[in-house]
Structures are given as C-alpha cells and as structure tokens.
Amino acid sequence: MDDNETRCDLLFVYGTLRHGCDNEKARTLTKMAEWLCTARTDGQLWNVDWYPALTKNTGRGDSVLGDVFRLTDPQTGLAMLDTYEECTADFPQPWEYRREIITVEGPNGSLRVWAYLYNRPVEGLDIIEGGDWLSHIARAPVRRPA
Length: 146
Prior knowledge:
By secondary structure, the protein is α+β, with helices and mostly antiparallel strands. Helices cover 22% and strands 36% of the residues. It has a single domain (3-139), classed as Gamma-glutamyl cyclotransferase-like (Hypothetical upf0131 protein ytfp, Roll), CATH 3.10.490.10. A hairpin with a 2-residue loop joins strand 6 (97-106) and strand 7. The mean pLDDT is 90.
C-alpha cells in the first residue's frame, strides 16, 4: 500500500450501504462520513443473495452506479467496514471481498476511492443489468435474512 492509499478518505459504495438505504450499517456510515455524490465505475454488478458484488475490468463496457462518501476518520471507518465485509484476519480466506483503490467518475470528474470488490468466481450469479442496486431492489425487493 503506497502513501496515497493510506491517506485516501473516499469510499465508493454500490449496494446495501448506498445513500438512502435503511439498515443499521448504512445509518452508521452516514454518521461517520459525508455523502459527496453519485458516481459510476467500469465493471459489473452481480446479485449474490440479499446483497450485490462488484467486479472490475470485465471488458464488456458495463458500469456500476454507487455513492461516494468522505470518511471523517478513515482508519476507524475502514476498520468497521472491513469487519462488515468480512475481510479481516478474523475471517477465513479466501475472503468474499477485498478492499482496493479504484477510479470512479463523478459529476466533477475522476476520483480515486476505496471500494470492496468481489473476490470469488461469479459463475452461477445473476448480473444486475444497468449496474444500479437501488433500481434492482425497487423492482424486486431482496429479503435480508433475520
């Protein structure tokens, strides 16, 4: 990890943490970060279960819509999110997600942001056409387990 990555305080979310989602972790994120804008990144969005997964560099020209937040305390915020995404030493490998710096396109240009990318094969998963989780769940609400 280079010095620019350790100082990055921007986060791109594309699923259950999106601006407007009403769940405990999304509410926690809005308390520890400022919503900046909606943005897009090259990639595909997959329906894993009650949550989505982003894969990059698919070569198909698809894009994924999400939200960019500025974390007030990146170290604390990313540690909480790493636990939520189960990509810490407390969880067995291979992890389902990995956190990486990616480029997104916002209304004022490109931004370098942290994002959680899917780290497993996508065979057997359905693609979410249009790459927008909020539109997807509005069409067919996904039930989160109790």
